[in-house]
Description:
This protein is mainly β and about 525 residues long. The chain has three domains: about 35-185, Immunoglobulin-like, CATH 2.60.40.420; about 195-355, Immunoglobulin-like; about 375-524, Cupredoxins -  blue copper proteins (Immunoglobulin-like, Sandwich), CATH 2.60.40.420. The protein is about 10% helix and about 40% strand. It contains eight helices and 32 strands. The longest helix is centred in the N-terminal third of the chain and has 14 residues, at about 5-15.
Amino acid sequence: MTNNNLNRRQFxxxxxxxxxxxxxxxxxxxxxxxAKNYPSANxxxxxxxxxxxKSAFIQILKQGNKTAVQKYYxxxxxxxxxxxxxxxxxxLGPIINLEQGQKVRVFFNNELDExxxxxxxxxxxxxxxxxxxMYAIQPGEQYVYEFEVLNRAGTNFYHSHTHGETGRQVxxxxxxxxxxxxxxxxxxxxxxxxxxxxxxxxxxxxxxxNQLSYVKxxxxxxxxxxxxxxxxxxxxxxxxxxxxxxxxxxxxxxxNSRIYKLAWDDGxxxxxxxxxxxxxxxPEVRPYVMLAPAERLDLWLDxxxxxxxxxxxxxxLPYDANLPMMMVRMSGMGSNSIEAGAKFKIASFKVxxxxxxxxxxxxQLATIKRFSENDVNNINNPIPIGLSMQHMxxxxxxxxxxxxxxxxxxxxxxxxxKKIRIFHEQGSRGRMGMMGGMSMPHPIHLHGQQYQILSxxxxxxxxxxxxxxxxxxxxxxxxxxxxxxxxxxxxxxxxFEDYKGFFLYHxxxxxxxxxxxxxxxxxx
Length: 524
């Protein structure tokens, strides 16, 4: 029996016991069985890829032993060979390059000794291709994804999404970047090729034998795991050689829980041209930008005018993480972990060649139709996403994740646009809430179609802490992950178009997700 059939039988069993919401229509149960174990005859793929997850040993640190990791290997079966950019001797999977309108088929083979499934984070795809943990396959099994690239040009993310094991599997290496382009982006003549660079930022800890060290204490799980070494594109202490011209840097926070406050060391402002969902309408210039786990920001930096040998460093600046100091200290006991909100270097960029030509930053990047409350059908009754940490639990609306349960608020109509309110249920006005509840930052990711931020309001009582981060939020573009700081309330408008089925929403602090801070919508 395949794992997919087992999941469906479990769903039907629990539903018969009344554990699923009684209002489910009959066809909902049938939709849970649409696992793709073979190609569809009527799906004509432009691109076919084969992905395989394996255990491997990679030389991550320059000295000493290779490190045991879990890794995605991939090859192009059909389509442009440049669809995959393999990073040699690297624990990260290959970077995937896609174009809007392409039809994509992916054969995923699980050669690990545990269940796994891949989520295409940011892509708007059907339920059966979204990587819901109900579809996790057993060792030796294959899963087939089929989807059309509906997204506009932008930077996305893929990673393991196995229930209860997402944090560990991603930490062990099961993730990488997706780049999507479209006709509009190509006309802008933005930096491409060697001038379009990934910046996958992660933190990792290693033991004395160069092996990855992960969660060992409950405080690390409650706060989220913080590593002791910053990795960029799978390498420590990275230095880029650049030319005296403009570059596009695709910054992806691939860490399990660490939040970055990005800034250039010489005071050069950060210029942002894109967010999770693609290009902004116009470039935005900030003294720093906040980048939470799973968020992406496309950065523009022009090295023109800098002298040969000039060096620029990207830092994460200090900020008040608004965490109880006791928890911060406990999380680092017995380790060299970099505390949340500390200052540290991420990468260096050194000018090694002077050139004369460089593209100019466009004044207008894209046109975005902004949603308003007139576009939603629940103006006065927003869907709540209430976040709380208490009694060693991570909850949404007071509930933990259930594979087989959808509450009334989580059932939405296909084609609707919903107003959603994201807030802290406990401790929303301070660092510690009632009954021991703890308020802390949460990056909230919604699967399916990307959304727009309607408003961000601070109602907390620690203005000084909030002032260390509040100039770094880029809220004008399309998003799929939003950082909700303690004391904040965020309203978004999310469309639920094109596809029926189950679509998750959860904290992308992966330790919180694994603790149960995850729920799901049913679109029908």
